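User: quick one - fold this with zinc ion bound?
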Amino acid sequence: MIIDTDFHTHPFQQKRDYEGMRDFAESALAKGLKRIVFTEHAPIDPAFGFDSRHYLDGREYDIYLECAERCRAEYQGRLEIGIGIEADYHPRNMEHVARLRKNYPFDHVGGSLHLHAGFWAEKTAGLTGDARVAYALDRTLELVESGLFTGLNHLDFFRWKQEDYAPKRHEERFRAVFGAMVKQHMSLELNTSGINKSFASFLPCAEVWRWSFDYPLERTFGSDAHKPELVGLARAEAQALFP
Ligand SMILES: [Zn+2]
Ligand SMILES: [Zn+2]
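Assistant: Sure. Structure tokens for the protein plus zinc ion:
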């Protein structure tokens, strides 16, 4: 499979306007991509009272969708543009994600577990080592089984701030996630942004990515670019890991 699409990009993080989004489209073109999918962080359920510039707020969310449609029209015939979101798994956010999905015909809804985010702090307090990894994978399985997402983002991102990460000790849980993904027809992302994090690895890591080959899963490539120049990050290295 030739990687010609970047399925995971954040065109609203920097300029938060249409020009910023065009910068992403231009970068995708310059890098020879056929398609880019915009997947800005969807707002969290307002009931959380969570406020972060990392996420769109309710007002920006509407502007984001308008800009994405305008951009898709402007680049028609030159670059395919998919309109999606990155949405958070949290048990208290699921009705909200269901509403978002009902109200817009997204091309892609990437599901993410951001265990480092403030709204998980209460549940993860005191969790360390293998117990934290097991907790993360159990939540990931819930994410998959919710049926609300079309793809799974950065599967082992919980390794960030994880002092001891030994995937082999959790192989059974990873395999349960893959098995559930097959049933839900969810795609698995190879996310290259981890190379710029402290652990310096694609997500999932090589061992877990290899296990996934025992399952008939669709695969996507995602740079998780928060800046236009990062669109298509490490595509050649990622390509070597695709069947
Ligand atoms: Zn994410
Ligand atoms: Zn992202």
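One thing worth noting: DSSP finds eight helices and seven strands in the chain.
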